[in-house]
Each structure stands twice: as structure tokens, then as C-alpha cells.
Amino acid sequence: MTPIIEVMWSKKRILTIYLNIAEFGEGIFGVEEAAKYYFKKPANQLNAAEAARLAAVLSNPLAYQAKKSSNDLLIRQVWVLQQMQQLGDKNFLKKHSFIAD
Questions:
Q1: Taking the domains of the chain in order of start, what are their residue ranges?
Q2: Are the C-beta atoms of 91 and 59 separated by less than 8 Å?
Q3: How far apart are CA 24 and CA 35, in angstroms?
Q4: What is the value of pTM for the model shown?
Q5: Are the beta carbons of 100 and 20 closer than 8 angstroms?
Q6: Whole-number pLDDT of residue 101
């Protein structure tokens, strides 16, 4: 099914769908719900550090918890921030919004 989706949808569309259904913790699905649960604000108002923390949780949302600062999670968050800086300026998230309206 993946090859068909990759032909039909752009990479941005695939990522948008994923971020809106991905698990960010037990019973927390989608980046919008995660932003509201962990940071008490909509996803489009997250700062870079908050967005990086949520991205860091994605690889194992039951082991990494956005509310708890473990050393491993902080290392992953810093790595995500570095990748964001390499990809663009401080407005990277605003220019490349993957949040479905």
C-alpha cells in the first residue's frame, strides 16, 4: 500500500496525515491533541523547543513522555532542534506547517 500512497500523495501530505494520527503518549493521538495536552496550546503556537520535544517522543511514545524530562529525551530533543536549524531559519515550523486545519 505504501508505494500507492507515495504515488498519489506528496511527502508533505503523507507527513501531515501521519502527524494528525500518530501516538504521542498513552491515549494521545495527533499533534494537535498532544500540543493541547502537554503545552496547553494549539500546535500552531508551539515554539521550536516544544515542537522538538513532541518530535522526540514519536519514536517511542510510551517510553518517552513529553512531560517527563529524561536524559534520553533531552538528547533527542536537542538533535531535533539541530536538524530544524539546518533545514531552515527560526520560522521553519511556520513555513512548513503540517497541522491539518
A1: 2-95
A2: no
A3: 9
A4: 0.77
A5: yes
A6: 44
Per-residue pLDDT tens digits for 29-70 = 999 999 999 999 999 999 989 999 999 999 888 888 788 778
Which residues are paired to 29 by β-bridges? Answer: 23
Contact assessment for residue 61 and residue 73, using Cβ atoms and an 8 Å cutoff: no
The CATH number of the structural domain formed by 2-95 is 1.10.3810.10
Tracing cell 518517552 back to the chain, one arrives at 64
Q: Would you state the cell numbers that stand for residue 65, as one nine-digit string?
A: 513522555
Pairing of strands 23-25, 28-29: antiparallel
- Single-letter code of the amino acid located at 72: D
Q: Could you tell me the three cell numbers for 52?
A: 522538538
Q: What is the pLDDT of residue 29?
A: 95
- The whole-number pLDDT of residue 28 equals 94
